[in-house]
Amino acid sequence: xxxxxxxxxxxxxxxxxxxxxxxxxxxxxxxxxxxxxxxxxxxxxxxxxxxxxxxxxxxxxxxxxxxxxxxxxxxxxxxxxxxxxxxxxxxxxxxxxxxxxxxxxxxxxxxxxxxxxxxxx
Length: 121
Prior knowledge:
Shape: elongated
Distance between the termini: 40 Å
Number of helices: 0
Largest sheet: 7 strands, mixed
Helix content: under 10%
Order of helices and strands: EEEEEEEEEEE
Structural class: mainly beta
């Protein structure tokens, strides 16, 4: 079966750093676009950072310049390096893997279980 397992969350002080990891199995990892999303209670899950199968990246305005998404296809792992963390970054962070081929009516995605990031003094 397909599994995406996040790790690296925890408690950090404002201004600190964390690196999240998401290890995937059961998919041809290199073919999937990957994303990190976050969600706080009462709000919609939002895209934080994405990376395509070709390595192009995009970021939410709120994290641009502070977060970096990267992927290691040899390890079937996507990372989110988070620097200069702010209290408003506190959320459950989820990784997502998606492959979409419109010509063949394929649009499949998978979610991890999430990892909690808390930024507080």
